[in-house]
Amino acid sequence: MKKRGLVLIALLILFSIFIVYAQTRNSGKLILNDDNSIGRLVSSDNLSVGDIFYLDDGRKARVTSVEDIVSDSDSNFDNLNFFANGVLVHNKLTPKVLATVVGKNTNTGHRSISVVYDMIDSSNVDKVFTNPLSPNFRGTKVVVYKTQNGDYVVAFFTESADTHHVQVGAKLAELDGWNKCVTGAYYERNFEQGGALLHDQWGFELRWDVQDRKIIKVEMGSAITNSQYGRGIQFDKSIMDDVAENLFRNIDQSLLSDQLKDFNWLNNPDLVEQITPRSLIKGNPTLTN
After folding, report:
1. Residue 197: pLDDT above 60?
2. Is 164 in the same domain as 23?
3. Global pTM?
């Protein structure tokens, strides 16, 4: 009985020490939630962009930005509340296969199968960048698709010599419930029948430096883009910003060059134009044929 009492006292002392530590520790990581609202302070040195944590109401949120901060006398960091609510971190996302697409070379008719991933990290970057542009560079293609319920899907594909943006875009739309007559026409670049999808898809090309193992170029450009130009299709700036944000959010930031990672490209007007061309934004001159 005496031993049990001593153990209980020891546990109470340890718990008191933990409470004092949690209440007095004033440095940590500030989480910004998906909607850019300020989240909780986390005492974690390993928290990084891409981690998943749980909000108080049980919803999952991805860490989109991490900033080291130190409190002052006016700050009220409630680390204890953070732990008491059972918030989980370090449950990292991993690339998932969205689909496989049969690509068809429009010049030769040759067909290839392309695996489509929802994101790029170190585990699949060599599978995605397979198109040799030169001895030092490889390329790949990406489609960003706005679903019928307003969510964004980002699709990176492994074979980009025969497989084209519209073919992957057609598959994404088919999976989202679009009529197969529309998606089939879109696959064949018949935009008279499949052109409605041009309002919900954007095509990008990426370049990979083999030696430095960094993505050095991200550019909006594809048959989708050219058709949008040709038809004078434009988008609200907020939509173009959302498209770019979702694209970069689905790339492991450590794989991006310094000028691209952590949204540094927003500080370079040339890169902004390359990634979100003004001619596709409402209020600017179009590039119609």
Report:
1. yes
2. no
3. 0.69
